[in-house]
TrEMBL record:
This is Transcription factor domain-containing protein. It comes from the Eukaryota. One of its GO terms (molecular function) is DNA binding. It comes from Exophiala bonariae. Keywords: DNA-binding, Metal-binding, Nucleus, Transcription, Transcription regulation, Zinc. Residues 1-24 are annotated as: Disordered. The keyword Metal-binding applies.
Length: 499
């Protein structure tokens, strides 16, 4: 699996703009839609219009872009209109959130305007940005505003901090500052854990009146942060999500025969996917040892059984007719869950003495997964009024397509997966589809070497482990440095590929 680039960047302190320009009027949602305001989250006298400091035309355009493009992309795979409404409300009414939103929107718009995810090559550290770089100015201003107000035990301020933390995590993922993105993510998880542990113990006599709306905000942003925490396992081998397993699993009983919501099904499946990846990564690390073989022998059937239980509960929840499954947001999420389940099941079921040859027995399953992934990728573009996504912090189809393309040796199926990566450029956290496609192309070249049938690729010609680092060293063209080991061989091979 791909790991994030190893940067040691730290945000530089932006210029502190101590004076505010004349105020201007910014349109926001009406009072009856929210029992919230920008000072305390529970006021009941919010007017339809709110007076905020003036922003320039670029910033105004960026807020519009954030509303109609960025927010739609942030939770592209598991959309929630209430979450999008809340994000827009706070980006228009809370200065620190607004600056974080402006930073993300400005970077995202530049990213989108350049045509594809891989065509934007951000500097390797914040210090490499030019002076006055507008997204960075707003990024630093958001941090400064948070530091000016100690959160303490104030739940309203904590909710705002979590929102900013989420937006800055997204910003750094998009900018390629993956180490900093993970720092923000871990910070957000830690804050949300502490808040959830203390929120029910408040003795403030006014807290009962504020509890409901504050809890709603905290629960929504916590859910988004915890989802990113769960999904980080797909690109960080040693990442351990923070107590998410117990939190999610406590929401349902193992005896339940149906999931209550698709979100619950998605979170439970991600836990199982993480366990599959853990077993697979551990098996590769300790390949051939008797202790590891015994551990996998015990753990593998347990996880397979859990995947079977998950599938039964999922099928009891959703209709079996999949003819129009990709026509709606709900349908696309259902297809994504089917895809993730299918790839996880193949990945775990294929573990055996035949090693990489074991995957050849799952051709039909690979074909179904490749078709699901292509359907998910194209469905959004067919939806009326939709915009083609270019970035999301969520993990969706890219790592699934990667596993299909490198583990299925059938020439047609793996090229179908490769074609989907090429036709639908998107970055999902650190997973850049164009970069992944370049790696897949090289794997195909190495393994096939003139062979056109999967059974003709010998075991020793198949790549067993592969990792890469995306390197961007301006003004040089971007490249990807790959490291791989053939099955049954001990030597490590390294190459540099131009993107």
């Amino acid at each position: 699996m791909e790991k994030g680039r190893d940067h040691n960047e730290n945000p530089q302190v932006a210029e502190n703009h101590s004076h505010c320009p004349p105020p201007t009027t910014i349109n926001i949602w009406r009072q009856e839609r929210w029992g919230l305001n920008h000072h305390g989250l529970t006021g009941h006298n919010l007017d339809p219009l709110m007076i905020l400091p003036s922003i320039g035309s670029k910033e105004a355009d960026a807020i519009t872009f954030f509303e109609f493009v960025s927010i739609e992309n942030l939770n592209h795979y598991q959309p929630s209109q209430s979450w999008r409404n809340m994000m827009m409300f706070f980006s228009q009414t809370v200065p620190s959130v607004r600056h974080a939103a402006l930073a993300l929107a400005l970077l995202h718009r530049d990213f989108t305007d350049r045509g594809s995810p891989s065509s934007l090559h951000p500097p390797q550290s914040f210090g490499d940005y030019p002076p006055g770089h507008l997204p960075l100015v707003h990024y630093n201003r958001a941090i400064e505003l948070l530091l000016d107000h100690d959160t303490g035990d104030n739940p309203e301020r904590t909710a705002i901090t979590l929102l900013v933390c989420y937006l800055l995590t997204c910003f750094d993922h998009l900018a390629g500052n993956y180490v900093q993105a993970i720092k923000h993510l871990r910070g957000g998880v830690d804050i949300s854990c502490k808040m959830n542990n203390s929120i029910l113990d408040k003795e403030d006599p006014d807290y009962d009146a504020t509890h409901s709306s504050v809890s709603t905000v905290i629960n929504q942003v916590t859910r988004q942060i915890r989802r990113l925490d769960l999904q980080a396992v797909t690109f960080l081998v040693d990442w351990i999500p923070t107590d998410t397993h117990d939190t999610i699993m406590s929401q349902s009983s193992p005896s339940d025969d149906v999931f209550q919501t698709l979100d619950q099904a998605a979170d439970c499946l991600q836990i199982l996917v993480n366990e599959v990846l853990r077993l697979h990564n551990t098996g590769q690390q300790f390949n051939g040892t008797s202790e590891m073989s015994a551990s996998l022998f015990i753990s593998r059937p347990i996880v397979l059984r859990q995947l079977e239980v998950w599938l039964n509960r999922f099928q009891n929840m959703v209709p079996r007719d999949t003819s129009h499954e990709n026509d709606t947001d709900t349908g696309r999420l259902i297809s994504l869950l089917r895809l993730k389940y299918g790839v996880a099941w193949i990945h775990l079921s294929s573990f055996g003495p035949g090693k990489e040859m074991e995957y050849d027995s799952f051709l039909t399953d690979f074909q179904q997964c490749a078709s699901l992934a292509d359907g998910i990728a194209t469905a959004h573009e067919r939806h009326p009024g939709s915009l083609k996504p270019t970035f999301t912090p969520e993990i969706g189809i890219v790592p699934m397509l990667y596993l299909i393309a490198v583990k299925c040796r059938h020439p047609v199926v793996r090229r179908q997966a490769l074609g989907t990566l090429r036709r639908h450029p998107i970055r999902e956290a650190v997973w850049d589809s164009i970069c992944v496609a370049r790696v897949v192309e090289r794997v195909i070249d190495i393994e096939e070497s003139g062979s056109q049938q999967a059974e003709q690729i010998a075991l020793g010609q198949r790549i067993e482990t592969l990792s890469w680092i995306h390197v961007e060293n301006l003004p040089n063209p971007p490249r990807v440095d790959i490291t791989y080991v053939f099955c049954g061989r001990g030597e490590t091979h390294t190459e540099s590929l131009k993107i």
